[in-house]
Write the structure tokens for this entry.
Amino acid sequence: DIVMTQSPDSLAVSLGERATINCKSSQSVLYSSNNRNYLAWYQQKPGQPPKLLIYWASTRESGVPDRFSGSGSGTDFTLTISSLQAEDVAVYYCQQYYITPFTFGPGTKVDIK
Amino acid sequence: EVQLLESGGGLVQPGGSLRLSCAASGFTFSSYAMDWVRQAPGKGLEWVSGISAGGGSTYYADSVKGRSTISRDNSKNTLSLQMNSLRAEDTAVYYCAKREGGGNGIFDYWGQGTLVTVSS
């Protein structure tokens, strides 16, 4: 199975400041035949189901604010919130869909400093 | 508007069985692969099982393989998960999730979840 790790476990950022979350996969999730990274990011607020933010490592889901961006390739990925808003307080998960079993990172909790 | 409504959760004794259902609406159900993802209390997300759009291909996490069966009824827009020989570690909120159109494991819509509690 592909193991996903995330860092940090949690972070507190001031409103309007940048938040950066890292995700690492135990093997590459880059499919060479189409040059796509099979990596998604989800946001989960308390008491709610996860919400898709980013897929193919850097494609923003429709309706997601452009302050959210994804980058990286192969085994190392980053989710960046360029200017943290109060409504961004949540747990963020990365997920690989390169191969089943699909696996998620342990999550990173983002709070306001 | 896409809606996924799970049901069937509840309290069950260890070794017992439960059948979860997910009623889908707002999209052409028969055209999309579907999955179950669970979340133990206070924990992260764990993919449980998936099924192709037509139902001909199914996939399971090792943690539930041999104890669970995923199925779908495209005439009724319903996804199901039959869970047997339940263990305490199966206690979780179970989410029904729709995959994006390409069939890749990108979960673009999620239900609100149904809680399964395995305890004596």
